[in-house]
Amino acid sequence: MKTLPRLLQSIAIFALALSAPVAGAAGDPVNGKVLYDANCSGCHGSVPDAIALYAAGPDLTEIKYAIANIPEMRTRPELTALTDAQLSDITAFLATYTTTAPGGVSYQGLWWKAPANSESGWGLNLAHQGDTIFASWFTYDTAGKGWWLVVTMNKTGTGTYGGDLYTTSGARFDAFNPANVTPTKVGTATLTFTDANNGTFNYVIGAVNQTKAITREAFGTIPTCTFGTVADLSTATNYQDLWWNKPANSESGWGINLNHESDTIFATWFTYDTDGTPLWLVVTANKTGTGVYSGDLYRTAGARFDAFNPASVVPTKVGTATFTFADGNNATFDYTVQLAGMAAPVHQQKQITREIFTAPGTTCK
Ligand code: HEC
Questions:
Q1: 20 to 30 A Cα–Cα from 36, which one of 2, 130, 273, 349?
Q2: How far apart, in whole angstroms, are the C-alpha atoms of residue 267 and residue 247?
């Protein structure tokens, strides 16, 4: 006679354990927004700040802890009166800021100072996969020499991404060796987008703290990019993306951003000079055949990043480059380069493929 109640009891416990997390995860984000606007936005902003999002794991416990313990919060009766169900809704609302569904807005592409053409000579390449943006910034060091910096930015809110800025040294481009790559943190960077084509770029490097308005750089028809909608990248016919040596990870430390608008590919190649310092070269490659794009390679000198002046930009032709695409995810990067101080030009070919840091990657069309 005791068997039946015990069985029922264990089923009840099982059902409870199963339903509790489901109830939490199923909080209503629409009602959560109403509750957030009424109770939280006054202190945490109408777009939730990083502190409020800290709990958006989504973690109800963290919000309850904050309401019970943060002096500014525990003294507000309207906050302590919120029920678990209401807080679950707020948690669900906060969670909408931390995950990008496949097919969401993609910021992938080449950006420069807004308004367009106001600071021609430096730029920012964004590779955007999932909630991560890998940015490579092409600018000039304090001596006016070409300087590139990279930052892996994580999403911190709607349209907001931040991370640490690194400068990198390595073996010269024509004798590259991933073992020699040495990244050094120099500061932090934040991107804040107001829509799909406009935003601001903030960087803090030592005592320098500057914010630039940025917009997309158009030299043809700007493609639309989406994350996660194409599983087989080889089928893509627009090549805009961050590419690196193939097989993936075989030469981590250098890369090339292909920006593909209409029949032109504007590529920014970040690699290393003959002395191992950062070197970036650019090429405007025009279509010369099916899957073939060619142009002249340039290096550029200019005014230092924190006192940039487009009038002081000096491009110097250093060679030529050709991209030959076997398909949407495989290409040959052929270049002939002679930098100052090199006795003769060097001619090399690299097999390249897209750099995927969040599967399945991003495609544009
Ligand atoms: C009266 C102002 C105020 C209101 C209203 C308010 N908060 Fe806060 N909140 C704060 C302050 C101040 C902190 C502490 C900031 C810090 O640690 O730097 C904080 C911290 C937090 C934290 C982080 C707790 C931790 O462990 O670090 C979370 C999460 C949070 N708030 C969520 C909310 C939510 C959700 C609401 C609305 C239900 C809300 N807050 C309403 C002022 C407020």
A1: 130
A2: 20
Q: Ligand 1 mean position to 49 CA, how many Å?
A: 10
List Cβ neighbours of 172 (8 Å cut-off, separation of 6 or more). Answer: 272, 273, 274, 275, 276
User: Which tokens belong to 117?
Assistant: 């053409």
pLDDT at 4 over 80: no
On whether the CB atoms of residues 141 and 147 are closer than 8 A, the answer is yes
Domain layout of the chain by residue ranges = 3-95, 109-364
Q: Is the CB of 356 under 6 A from ligand 1?
A: no
| Whole-number Å distance between alpha carbons of 329 and 130 | 19
| Residue 207: how many other CB atoms lie within 10 Å | 6
The protein residue whose alpha carbon is closest to atom 12 in ligand 1 is 72
- Best residue among 37, 46, 70, 84 to mutate for probing ligand 1's pocket (most ligand atoms within 8 Å of CB) is 70
| Type and span of the H or E element at 33 | helix 29-39
Residue-wise pLDDT tens digits, 137-187: 999 999 999 999 999 999 988 889 999 999 999 999 999 999 999 999 999
